[in-house]
Design brief:
The structure is a homodimer.
Chain A: H1 2-11, H2 19-28, E1 30-34, E2 39-41, E3 49-55, E4 58-63, E5 69-75, E6 80-81, H3 84-89, E7 96-99, E8 103-109, H4 110-115, H5 120-146, H6 149-159, H7 161-166, H8 169-176, H9 180-192
Antiparallel strand pairs in A: 1-8, 2-7, 3-6, 3-8, 4-5, 4-7
Chain B binds a DNA duplex through residues 148-149, 168-170, 178-185, 188.
Chain lengths: 193, 193
DNA sequence: CGTTGGCTTGAGAGGGCTCAAGGCCAGTGG
DNA sequence: CCACTGGCCTTGAGCCCTCTCAAGCCAACG
């Protein structure tokens, strides 16, 4: 199970991993199973650990005053789930994170992560991830303030086609910032064209 | 002029700067003046350098098919302007960046930045900035898909009150993803309450 | 075979947009 | 010193996109 993670770190860093470092990493990351709908983080808690997804699908979302869920991120195999801000700053998170599918993850706490700070390639990976995350958010924010719902859906179709296979439409709709009804109508119109 | 930057780096890193490093940094960052409305980056170009703002105000925005501008970031003193994604990946940017006010900036190219990679405290600063950027985008994206225009304005008032002093309403409106007319009406209603 | 979750469709409402006009103010040039 | 201009803000009317609420259908599942 840890092999996937090791491969992933290798792929996301220029610096190679030594035998020793590999063992360190394997010893620190704790495997966990998340059942469908099981919380990984609830709003109000500090995000004590990050989760590398070996198998499964996880969502991060906020809940507004009227009880509506707004999906901020969808994560599948070989992505990291967790609220980076809460994790890094040790502040309470405003987001919920839960498993949409039954998932296998490898978790690591902040303290343990800090203990691995001597592993260059792990640092590089974390750095790269933070950057990519930032780029992705920038793109989505731009889409949110610039495009119509239809264009945002078209973009999602291009960028993450696997999401459409993996998540039901009401989840996709929430991710796009629209209602499931609107998404349903958009899709029907798209077919007619 | 470089003093502001040095102070800034010190403030954003735990590692202290040596005399030597300070001199290196001063020698590499090139001061530039940007006139009002002068482009720092135009869509289609690769963002070859980042700019630390010593004085002034700079905006980053995309232009849609109908010619409407959508403001993604507003930057003032002691912020960094530039498209991090284009800068890091050397890909063409889809954003325009220009000076809203006459500005004094310190610029550095990617090659020069890579040349300073031995300066720990500069790396730490860059890391911190990327993270904060990511956090800020996450917050704004959440606002964009969860809140009404009115709430987004209220949040902006709280988070960056200085923006309201500094930029005209049509800029603020664009930043919030609404039209200037809508913003005007929101403000009037807010006063009545 | 009832229940639950997901998708669709309709009707009505509303938030925000578009287009258009008018007012205010500061800067500029005659 | 005044007229003119450009940038900015406001207000109105009509419209459109998206939301809300409600109902109905279907497939999966216990």
């Amino acid at each position: 199970m840890h092999e996937v993670l090791i491969q992933y770190i290798r792929a996301h860093s220029a610096t190679p991993l030594t035998e020793n470092e590999t063992e360190q990493i394997k010893s620190v990351f704790v495997p966990k199973k998340l059942r469908k709908r099981q919380y990984f983080l609830q709003a109000g808690e500090v995000c004590r650990s990050m989760a590398f997804i070996v198998k499964g699908a996880i969502r991060q979302y906020s809940v507004d005053a009227r009880g509506n869920e707004h999906i901020l991120r969808l994560c599948i195999e070989e992505w990291w789930a967790g609220d980076r801000e809460s994790f890094t700053m040790l502040t309470p998170s405003i987001y919920n994170i839960d498993a949409w599918e039954e998932s296998d993850v490898l978790t690591i706490t902040k303290t343990e992560m800090d203990g691995l700070s001597s592993i260059t390639s792990l640092n590089e990976m974390a750095r790269t991830l933070d950057q990519n995350q930032s780029f992705a958010y920038q793109k989505r924010l731009n889409a949110a303030i610039s495009y119509t719902a239809e264009k945002r859906y078209a973009e999602l179709e291009q960028t993450y086609p696997e999401f459409l296979q993996r998540f039901p439409q009401h989840i996709i709709a929430s991710y796009l910032g629209i209602t499931k009804e609107t998404l349903s109508r958009i899709r029907n119109q798209a077919v007619k064209k």
